[in-house]
Amino acid sequence: MSHHDGHNHSDHGNGGHDHGQAHDHSDEIEPALQTLIWKQIDFNQIRTLNESEPDAGANIVKKTWQQRMNSDPELMSDSDEQLLMFVPFAGVLKLHSILVRASASSDCPQTLKVFHNKDDLDFSTAADLSPTQTLTISQTNDIQELPVKRAKFGNTYNLTLFMEDNYGDDVSRIYWLGFKGEFMELNREPVEVLYEKAANPKDHELVAGIGERGSLGGGRHGM
How far apart are CA 50 and CA 148, in angstroms? Predict the structure, then answer.
């Protein structure tokens, strides 16, 4: 693993990256929009390691379908090109595919390792463990849909996404993440679960861990 902790990435702003909205192939995906998972995501519990800004990982997942082509907010890695995201759901998901909007630039993530129902991974364990499935993100400004092997993601409570490398840049950027599948609620409406968890002080623990390359387990991000 390459961790360029000494690098200064302050000059990796939006300059030089053309993320125009001319390439919106919405007609290719919208017929299956009824399978898009959004409100069933437990946004307050999303955790991202090596993000350069607090809650950047959660914010790109919070974007709605209508906001998917917006360049802001963005998720940019911090000390090197790797990112590790934990995304929980307010119920049981049968995952069909992962939707990604990155870019045609060298900061586009390349290898995406997906782990099913693992909530305590760090970069070391994510690199050592065999993922549930490995996907490849292509260099494009368009929305790309990455199908998964449905038999392996039949009872999904959470996903851990390990973006292991990119196409040559010191940092990685991603602008939107979405999920498609079939969702089964757990006793109550997912929106009620989200509201109840929104007031939980522990939801804000990750702020202390911004830029750290620790564990997604949460215990190492306390004050």
Answer: 25
